[in-house]
C-alpha cells in the first residue's frame, strides 16, 4: 500500500497560484485601505466646501435662496461687483500690509529671543514659559484685553505715557492713521512665542563644531550669525514663514475684537470683508468671491514655496 508523500516544509501550495504572488496581489488593496480615510476626509472637509464656494460665487444668493438652495446663476455679476467696489482694493492692500508687517515683526522678535535663550542663565526656562502665554490665550480674549489697554481715554498704555510725561491721548484704535499699525503690533505680540519656539528648536540642532570653527577663523558674532546660523536655519525659517503666512493672511477674530474693521474701514482686510459681506450684509455671493480671492492668494504663495523648495533641493 502506497502512502502519499508529504514535503518537509508542510502542505504544498495551492495549484496555479504561486505563494509569493498572493501577498503581492493584496498589497495595493491594503495601501488603498490606509489612504482612503485621508482621501475621504479631504474630499468631505476641503474639496466639497471649496467647490461649493466657487459655485456660490456665480449665483445670486439672498437669505431666502440660501436656505432653499435654489439660487439662480448670474454669471460674473458678483465678481464684477466686488472688483468695482473701492472697499475691495483697500481691503486687499490692508491684507498685504497687515500680513507683511506681522510676519516681519514676529520673525525678527522671535529670532532675537530664540538666540537670546540659547545662552544659559538662571530662570531661563521660567522666562521661556512666560513668553508662551500670549500664544496660549484665545485670540478673541487677547483682542478684548488689548482693546482695553489701547483705549484712548481709559487705557493703561495712555495712562502710563501720561505718567512719564509723554502724549497720553494717542488714538490707537480710533484714528484711521493709527488703527492698522496698532492691530499689527498686537498680532506681532501674539505671534512672537510661536516663532521663538520653532526657531529655538532649530537653533538646538546647529552643530557646535560650526561655531567653534568660526571662532577659530576669527569671525565676529555678526559674521557667525550671518554665515553659520542663518544658512543652517533656512529650512526652519521657511516653515515658520509659511505657517505664519497661512495663519496671518486669514485672521478675522482679532480684528473684529479690536476694531471691527474700522475706523472708516482703516483695518478692513479680505477676511473681515468676507465676513461682513456674508453675515452682515447677507450677500453670500459677494462673500464667496472675496473668499475665493483669499484662497487664490494662499494657493499662489504655496506654489512659490514649493518651487523654492524644489530649487533648493537641486
Characterization of the model:
Helix content is 71%, strand content 0%. The chain has helices at residues 21-56, 63-68, 77-84, 86-117, 124-131, 133-136, 139-149, 156-163, 179-204, 208-216, 221-232, 234-248, 253-258, 270-280, 284-313. The model is unreliable at 4-14 (pLDDT under 50). By secondary structure, it is an all-alpha fold. It folds into two domains: 45-61 and 70-84 and 287-314; 88-282, MetI-like fold, CATH 1.10.3720. The longest helix is centred in the first third of the chain and has 36 residues, at 21-56. α9 runs antiparallel to α12 (234-248). The protein contains 15 helices and no strands.
How are the SSEs placed, and which strands pair?
Layout: H1 21-56, H2 63-68, H3 77-84, H4 86-117, H5 124-131, H6 133-136, H7 139-149, H8 156-163, H9 179-204, H10 208-216, H11 221-232, H12 234-248, H13 253-258, H14 270-280, H15 284-313
